Amino acid sequence: MGNFATLQPGGRPLVRFYLAFMLWFVGRAIQAAALVDPNVRKEFNDLPDDFSFSLGAAFNGPQMAIGKDSNGKVKYLGKNSNIVPQVKITIKSMEALFLLFTFRESTPVANSRERMTVEGNLSHACACVRILDIVQVYLLPKPIAKLAIKRYPKWSLKKHTINRLLINLRAIIGF
Fold first, then answer.
1. Is the dihedral of CA 119, 108, 36, 166 positive or negative?
2. Helices (H), the chain
3. What is the DSSP string of 33-45?
4. Alpha carbon distance 28, 66 (integer Å)
5. pLDDT above 80: residue 157
6. Among the residues of 37-91, which ranges form H helices?
């Protein structure tokens, strides 16, 4: 047999940039939501101290990491965090992550189509997915959020407007 050339898949730089930006913004929004929303705060309080999780695409795709310190403060750890997360949620490819973050496929559908893998405690992973769902409701308009999550919550007008404004503002500014 002869030598075969090694083929490298296309980089798709615009898709990679979009996904990296979305993971960055969602990570900062999770940090902000932990300060503003009592449901997100409760989910993080139920997780152990010094807990961290990551979400990203497999095969060197874009990543994000979120951590909770021993004082209970939630922090966006960035894309290239040196810590080993207790829960690692990996989407099998950048294309599958792109389907999730263009809201053409919800998290439960991606899970049922075996596009997600979880390493770590399953109950902690479920809490992380619930946190992501709550944050998506805050970040997205209602018609798009209904596509991204399983059930759209019935929240008060204050929760939809003021908390949404606070979370978006804190995510943009970074505090």
1. positive
2. 13-36, 38-46, 94-101, 107-112, 122-139, 142-148, 157-158, 164-173
3. HHHH-HHHHHHHH
4. 9
5. yes
6. 38-46
CB 89 within 8 A of CB 55: yes
**Contact, 22 vs 140, CB < 8 A?**
no
In this prediction, residues 133-149 reach a mean pLDDT of 89
Show the 3-state SS of 116-132: EEEECCHHHHHHHHHHH
> What integer is the mean pLDDT of 70-92?
88
CA distance 174 to 145: 23
With beta carbons less than 8 A apart as the criterion, state whether 29 and 138 touch: yes
Q: Tell me the domains of the chain and their CATH numbers.
A: 13-173 (3.30.1050)
**Pairing verdict, β 74-78 and 87-91:** unpaired
Backbone angles phi, psi at 60, to 5 degrees: 65, 30
Look up residue 142 and give its two tokens: 């209602």
Positive/negative CA dihedral, 120, 94, 146, 166: positive
pTM of the entire structure? 0.88
pLDDT in tens, 35-47: 999 999 999 999 9
